[in-house]
């Protein structure tokens, strides 16, 4: 313990550390790691998006205030635990929610309030660009926001000098460099894997599409420069150091890695950047990211194509609904328990009820539910109505009830994943899963393994999150061996010896899920009828 403490103090003093700061949807988090990739200290700041003039946004003051607060809390933890004032850091990285729209003029003025990924205001632009490029352009992508602004003839457009993401903006503010990591860039505009840059043909197609508007810029002029993981993307300026550390102890000149999106840092944090691997993130929504060996043969609106931080293509399946309905039902069971005079902890309730699903019929006994609190793009529902339905012949018991709700939490995700596996023959060697559902051992892993028909692992580091992931990318820039790939760096240095609990798909579960998903698809008409007729 003393040796470890001495090692950490030396790492802080000598600047053998890496700092990652990530801007999530509800929290800004700063994580400082040593050269063994262990967390030394962290700090955070809670924040919320605002709805202003019809757009979901975060204001610039909150961005800076939150950043300073998270850094300050991390810095104070170091001083409290190790008695050292941070004056230098080995490397820094910024990451944030992907996509969205931040447009600036040549003076650095933000031309319209930051439009986040959450805004569903670009449907016309997204569809037109998808048709034009023959490449799926989701509504949340930056290019969809830009083109929708053009269709709307917004007044700020002639003044644009830069459009970027939140991570790109923060990086620019602290380095003066208009840079972006390739993973984050792939949520702005399609990437060409062969050139590791924006797709040149599509850039030309976009310029032709808007040529009659007469704007004084071409698309490539206003996009940030793309960087690959391992490259240095700038240094902390004197002004940047003073903004980051209000106590003004931090010195400028610290190298920064390319700014990345939260999807990329999630891949790093779960060691899922190698081809034929993937990760599944489970929460209110659920998404799977599978690193592809080759491009898909056609356009699928259910599949987003992005990249890893080192530029490999990734198929992303995102479903809006996952655990909310399970949480609601467990809340009801807790109410019943308390009404019977039995107080029960939620962790125990989850453990007992989720484990009942392992006693169920393979397909859930003919039961059906939809946990749609909101619409679901994959299944074509614009709105949602949580719904549970059964026939008189269904085997209605607690085990089947719980299995059905676990199956349906991953129903839309499975439909998207089946496209990758069945229509595109995408091979998956392993999947890393993370999220609160996996706090109950085995059950969630077995269900996801059945949905994916692939091995699913939980790692001891899965809870570290994206701020740790971008700190790892900053460390990779400084500490990799010459020509060492990101995959090898993660495998051999960061994750070597990390506990990993792997579960292979059970044929019982796989067959049962296949039967369930056919019932799920047929029942979508029932869910649509509920949306159409159940007006509260």
Automatic annotation (TrEMBL):
Pfam hit, one: FGGY_C
GO biological process, one term: carbohydrate metabolic process
Coiled-coil annotated spans: none
SUPFAM superfamilies, per database record: Actin-like ATPase domain
Sorted UniProt keywords: Kinase, Transferase
CDD domains attached to this UniProt entry: ASKHA_NBD_FGGY_BaXK-like
UniProt entry tagged with the keyword Transport: no
Gene Ontology molecular function terms on file: kinase activity
Domain of life: Bacteria
Membership in a protein family: Belongs to the FGGY kinase family.
Name of this protein: ATPase
UniProt source species: Priestia filamentosa
Lineage: Bacteria, Bacillati, Bacillota, Bacilli, Bacillales
């Amino acid at each position: 313990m003393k040796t470890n403490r001495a090692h950490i103090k030396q790492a802080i003093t000598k600047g053998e550390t890496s700092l990652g700061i990530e801007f999530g949807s509800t929290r800004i988090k700063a994580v400082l790691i040593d050269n063994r990739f262990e967390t030394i200290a962290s700090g955070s700041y809670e924040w919320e998006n605002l709805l202003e003039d019809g757009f979901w946004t975060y204001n610039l003051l909150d961005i800076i205030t939150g950043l300073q607060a998270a850094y300050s809390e991390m810095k104070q933890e170091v001083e409290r635990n190790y008695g050292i004032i941070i004056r230098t850091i080995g490397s820094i990285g910024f990451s944030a929610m992907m996509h969205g729209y931040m447009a600036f003029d040549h003076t650095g003025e933000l031309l319209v309030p930051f439009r986040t990924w959450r805004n569903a205001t670009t449907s016309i632009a997204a569809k037109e660009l998808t048709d034009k490029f023959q490449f799926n352009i989701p509504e949340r992508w930056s290019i969809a926001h830009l083109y929708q602004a053009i269709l709307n003839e917004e007044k700020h457009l002639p003044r644009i000098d830069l459009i970027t993401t939140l991570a790109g903006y923060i990086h620019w503010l602290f380095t003066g460099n208009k840079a972006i990591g390739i993973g984050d860039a792939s949520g702005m505009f399609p990437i060409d894997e062969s050139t590791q840059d924006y797709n040149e043909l599509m850039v030309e197609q976009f310029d032709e599409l808007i040529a009659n508007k007469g704007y004084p810029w071409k698309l490539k002029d206003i996009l940030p420069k793309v960087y690959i993981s391992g490259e240095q993307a700038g240094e902390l300026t004197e002004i940047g150091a003073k903004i980051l550390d209000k106590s003004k102890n931090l010195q400028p000149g610290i190298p920064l890695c390319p700014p990345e999106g939260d999807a990329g840092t999630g891949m790093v944090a779960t060691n899922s950047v190698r081809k034929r691997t993937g990760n599944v993130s489970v929460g209110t929504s659920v998404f799977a990211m599978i690193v592809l060996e080759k491009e898909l043969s056609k356009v699928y609106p259910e599949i987003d194509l992005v990249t890893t931080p080192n530029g490999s293509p990734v198929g992303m399946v995102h479903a809006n609904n996952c655990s909310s309905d399970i949480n609601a039902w467990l809340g009801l069971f807790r109410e019943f328990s308390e009404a019977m005079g039995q107080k029960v902890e939620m962790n125990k309730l989850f453990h007992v009820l989720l484990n009942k699903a392992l006693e169920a019929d393979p397909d859930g006994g003919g039961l059906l539910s939809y946990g749609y609190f909101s619409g679901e793009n994959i299944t074509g529902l614009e709105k949602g109505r949580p719904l549970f339905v059964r026939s008189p012949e269904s085997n209605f018991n607690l085990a089947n009830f719980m299995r059905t709700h676990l199956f349906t939490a991953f129903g839309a995700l499975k439909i998207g994943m089946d496209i990758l596996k069945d229509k595109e023959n995408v091979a998956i060697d392993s999947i890393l899963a993370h999220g609160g559902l996996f706090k109950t051992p085995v059950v969630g892993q077995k269900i996801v393994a059945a949905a994916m028909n692939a091995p699913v692992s939980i790692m001891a580091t899965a809870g570290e999150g994206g701020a740790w992931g971008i700190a790892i990318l900053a460390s990779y820039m400084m500490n990799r061996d010459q020509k060492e790939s990101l995959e090898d760096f993660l495998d051999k240095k960061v994750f070597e010896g990390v506990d990993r609990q792997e579960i292979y798909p059970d044929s019982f579960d796989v067959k049962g899920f296949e039967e369930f998903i056919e019932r799920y698809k047929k029942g979508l008409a029932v869910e649509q009828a509920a949306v159409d007729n159940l007006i509260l």
